[in-house]
Amino acid sequence: MFSPSHVPNPGFHDTVPSMIRFENVGMRYGMGPEVLRDVSFHLAPGSLHFLTGPSGAGKTSLLKLMFLAQRPSRGLITMFDRDIATLPRAELPDIRRRVGVVFQEFRLIDHLTTYENIALPLKIQGRAEESYRADVKELLSWVGLGERMQAKPPTLSGGEKQRAAIARAVVAQPDLLLADEPTGNVDPEMGKRLLRLFIELNRLGTSVLIATHDHALVEQARAPELVLQNGRLTVRG
């Protein structure tokens, strides 16, 4: 299911449909200054991009807008051909279920085992366990957690939690995957292995956006970059 292949599809052109589009988006927290200013870009279905820039540039804020955890102060955001500003609140969960997110703080559920945490998105979908048990175990092995399947998050190291969070985000093969510093707590070899997982997911049709400070990761994938600097965004590659 998740065999590693390097077949990215990084398209970034106005002639193709958009999975997500920002037009002159600004964002501020409360009455503070804008942390994002006049941000415009789009991600095509099946694309793979990196989000780069110095600390404090607004990368996490941009991801929060894409995950619908925050609303913009101004501008237009469309996701899956829906205007987020006019979307009824009752329909937001349906949009969120199409998005997988790797958070820096992991957000694993402490009373569930590693296996149960990773399988949770599939359980929420209403799938019977026998239909996904083998896939979840395969994914656990792929991220190096095959021997930690029954362990609970408080007993995992930071790197193990990171890998579990990534596995949970990709297990349901979402339409869009947002990863915030997904290799920040793992060694370089595991980082390369996780990148291959993202590329394989992308090959299967998921649009992938990876926020990272790891330039070696960007060089390895050779995908376009969205570069944030002082709240403004440019496209490279």
Describe this structure in words.
- The protein has seven helices and ten strands.
- The model is unreliable at 1-15 (pLDDT under 50).
- It is globular and about 45 Å long.
- The chain folds into two domains: 17-98 and 174-237, Rossmann fold (3-Layer(aba) Sandwich), CATH 3.40.50; 104-173, no CATH class.
- A six-stranded mixed sheet has the order 6-7-8-3-9-10, sandwiched between helices. It has a four-stranded antiparallel sheet with strand order 2-1-4-5, with helices on one face.
- It has helices at residues 59-66, 92-96, 114-124, 129-142, 158-170, 188-203, 215-221, and strands spanning 20-28, 34-43, 48-52, 74-79, 82-83, 99-102, 176-180, 207-211, 225-229, 232-236.
- Helices cover 31% and strands 24% of the residues.
Put the structure in a nutshell.
With 237 residues, this protein is an alpha/beta fold.
Please supply descriptive tags for the structure shown above:
single chain; 237 residues; alpha/beta; Rossmann fold; six-stranded mixed β-sheet; four-stranded antiparallel β-sheet; globular; disordered N terminus
